[in-house]
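Render this sequence as a predicted structure.
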Amino acid sequence: MWKRFLKQAQREYGPKQRLAVLLAAAALFVVILPLALLYLGRLLDRGLDWPVLLYPPVNAIVGSLMVLAGWLLAMWTIYLQFTLGRGTPVPVVATQKLIICPPYSYCRNPMALGTIVLYGGVSVAAGALGAAVLVVLGAGALLIYIKVVEEQEMVARFGDEYLAYRRRVPFIIPRLGRRG
């Protein structure tokens, strides 16, 4: 199965195919997941009798800034993956080139960081403690997946170039003072 995945990841797709995949992924990550996060977070809040932590306008301002920052970082990474990497963040339409310019020179997983910040902002804006717990659990699962599966796949695809990049650039917490 691993070899089949690597073969799939090495297949290059045209811009129209990549755009179609991005639009489908956008429906999931921009609409469905945030709504599910809020719905399940509220269920968790009610089930555990947790209060809604709503302090207007603090929640709106902080949550909106987090959503904006996370969205901008995610869009930046998607743009680079689409243009420089000739792929997408979706593993079945993987990038064909290792991207090491900013924001990838600040941390190896800026897409994951942007997504975590964005969904964290959604939970803050809603004042939903349950949603925040779900974001933390989802972030943990995502980071474990990246560490255990995706990094092995990157080594298999990009070899020594990725290993050198991995040695000089932090995993998820950005190093802003110095570029890899």
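Summary. The two ends are 33 Å apart (CA to CA). The mean pLDDT is 93.
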